Amino acid sequence: TQLLEQSPQFLSIQEGENLTVYCNSSSVFSSLQWYRQEPGEGPVLLVTVVTGGEVKKLKRLTFQFGDARKDSSLHITAAQPGDTGLYLCASNDYKLSFGAGTTVTVRA
Amino acid sequence: DTGVSQDPRHKITKRGQNVTFRCDPISEHNRLYWYRQTLGQGPEFLTYFQNEAQLEKSRLLSDRFSAERPKGSFSTLEIQRTEQGDSAMYLCASRISGEDDEQFFGPGTRLTVL
User: Which residues of chain A does B44 touch, with a Cβ-Cβ cutoff of 8 Å?
Assistant: First the structure.
């Protein structure tokens, strides 16, 4: 079973600041997905990364996949209160294996 | 809205009672998944179906848990003789097999066992 570690566990920042959250694995990812989950809702897919060294951008969100495909990061520029949520990384196979997530709070 | 729906959204029950949850996937999706999420953790895989066939069950799925998808459309998850440790969010997701991208999640059923 692939173990995913996410850090930090909690992150609280002021609106307009930048933040980075990390996801590390004990083994190589076939592909990795990032999700955001809001309270009382299911996770929603943000991005899928497949190739080592890959960088994807989604508006103010930048996703990087490590060269060795064992780690990934999510960077948010100029965070807004609407970015508040639980950010989860998951190993993408026929089933998903999730990390414990990073709870991000953006204060207005 | 044609997303994944789950019913009920919340369930409070007493220890020892049986509960059943329902999931309606996106209509053309042939794969259906159940996950469990406890506070402070990410979702954990429980089981999945391709059409009506249950293809895998996690070791987390004790013999008190049973899932069905009788006609390859909606699915039910039943927990018998509930225990306080069963308290969690139960999430359902669906996708099209052969496409390795997105699983679409429902809003979940929050179970509280008193």
Answer: 98
pLDDT in tens, A28-75: 988 899 999 998 899 999 999 999 999 999 999 999 999 999 999 999
Q: Give the three-state DSSP class for A81.
A: helix
How far, CA to CA in Å, does B75 sit from each of A8, B23, B112? Answer: 36, 5, 21
Measure in Å the smallest separation between the Cα of A23 and chain B Cα atoms.
13
Cβ B108–A42 below 8 Å, yes or no? yes
Tokens of B92: 């359902």
Q: State the average pLDDT over residues B22-44.
A: 94
**A100: closest CA among A27, A21, A5, A2?**
A5
Is pLDDT of B100 > 70? Answer: no
HSE at residue A83, side-chain half, CA atoms within 13 A, is 28
- Strand A102-107 and strand B19-24: the pairing is unpaired
The DSSP result for B48-71, as a single string, is EEETTEEEEE-TTS-TTEEEE-TT
Please classify residue A78 by burial: count the beta carbons closer than 10 Å to its beta carbon, then call 0-12 exposed, 13-18 middle and 19+ buried: exposed
B48 touches chain A (CB under 8 A): yes
Chain-chain contact of B42 with A88 (C-beta, under 8 angstroms): yes
Query: How far apart are the CA of B74 and the nearest CA of chain A, in angstroms?
Result: 18
